[in-house]
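Task: encode each sequence below as structure tokens.

Item 1
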Amino acid sequence: MNRVMAIASWLAPTVDLRCTQIKCGSEPARDRARSFTTILGTLLLCLITTAALATEPELRVQTHLQPTDSVMVGGVLELQLDVFTDSWFTDAPTLPELKLSGALVMPPDGHAEHINQKLDGKSFNGMRYSFRITPNLARGIDIPALTVRATPGQATTELSAQSQPLHFIATQPPGFKPGEPVLVAQGLRFTQKVIKSVTPLKLGDSITRQLTLQADGALAMSLPTPLLGDVAGLSRYPKSPWISSLDDGRGHFNGGQRIDTATYRIDTEGQYSLPAIELKWWDASTQQTRTAHVPAVTFDAVVNSTYRPVFSITEELERHGQQISGHWLGLLALLVIVALLAWFSCPLVHRAYLGGQARRRARHAMWLESAEYAWRQIPSQLEDRPAQLSALYLWAKRSRNDLKLTNLGPRVQGLLCACYGRKPSEDQALHRLKESLTELHSQVERNNESAALALRPLNPVHKKEFR
């Protein structure tokens, strides 16, 4: 912008000269002078507009400590970080990470307070972020310069700005020794809750003790750990503490909360007492030392008749060993011998079973190939409509008659004539054949025996009976 003003000052005499020529010169000269003046004015206007558009917005950072007078060890010190711009914020600024030796730091939770302020005669819009710091040691602590990055509206690139470094001194509250845990709060609530598994308590049951500590104006991570110690005759099982911040429901910080829980299992009968717990703290509102406490918890544990503790393997083996006598040892040895014999005889039994199955299958196959089997099929085939004679032919063949039906008697010949003659009378012939089946079977048996006595076959075949 300064360069544009310098150029305008340098061109001013030339503009005045052209204006004089317009007044004093001829008409053509006046027209040329007017054109030159118009072009020069347009050029100056473009330069001024471009310079105004090219101006980058500003980014400024300021820091403040609250309170500013005194800081106690265990108390909360608020570091206010104000980020300003003469334009507007298109996105939330990028805040730095703050770590301090000898102090706990809780970074901003994302909520910001909108503020307006005039700096060097210009109006700035800003956002205020709060870092909460709790000193652990009584000493001086330095806060380094903090770099904030943001991209305000009309900015061509990301801008950055730094705050001024700060320093504060933390002092030990009265009544606390150096190195002793210190809790500084505006108000404090310390309560307990006792939960019994059953009533009355017996051997093997459990009791749970829950301590809740709420401190106004204190960080949750800075709250001290109450002492839940061991008690003889009880087994202690602590749980992880539940630590959280307290707010007013609108995101504004109010304080911290810590919940500690421990469960005690009763190992032996008797009377027990969980000791009282005291907590010393500094009241920032009255500037004095106070003590909060919870009372002791007393209870009795009786013997549980239904309770059976975990048994000892050694005692069980000794007790059972005394009960085992020689009689039982002999019975056990006999069972072992029987089991071994059964194990070794399994292959023999299996082979015998397979052999018996093979013999049964062979006998059944021979039965199906015998003349007696064919003979038993004849009555059912004669009952069919039309009657069948295949079983009769098969029986004749297996009875060594070679299908010579003439050897089967006049009844069979009469059946054939009745079935295939000029005047069929099949029903009567079948009826007569059924009546003479027993006689026919006996006749064939006698013929086979006489043939066997007359001439023995060259390859004798032993006759087998099938049942």
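Item 2
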Amino acid sequence: MSTATTKPTATTVHTVVDSPCGLLTLVAREGELSGLYMTDQRHRPPSESFGPRADLPAFDRVEEQLAAYFDGDLSAFDLPLNMAGTPFQKRVWAALCDIPYGQTATYGELAAAMGHPTASRAVGLANGKNPISIIVPCHRVVGSDGSLTGYGGGLTRKRWLLDLERGTQQPTLT
């Protein structure tokens, strides 16, 4: 199976920011956030696809909102996103944003909410390909029994993000 990667263009740039859950690579395409990747994240595109390192006003806004989120002062992001994916993936990613802050949903519940009650595996695959972790909250999806299941940033980070939203996390990921 071949994986498509986004080639950098003059309009694709990135920056790297520190956060309580490690370094985050922010990628912007056409001035809008198109990627937020953790170190060692599964399905992370190759670094060459991120374009040159640059400072953009769009990154400042992302950093401000991430800081507020990590401080417990922001429960919903308000950022223009430029997510590349299939129509189904985009529907899944939009549905992720409907899961309330501090709550979780199962893959089956998410599939049913999208009108595809038998598509929990397809929802899981699309969830795993989410290019903007944290902001598009794929960490809020759990297994059918409520257990923590796969997360591109690792289960330790998933637990930490869920604990952050519930007000029970440690100050930094250890």
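Check on item 2: The first helix runs from residue 57 to 70. The chain is about 30% helix and 15% strand.
End of task.
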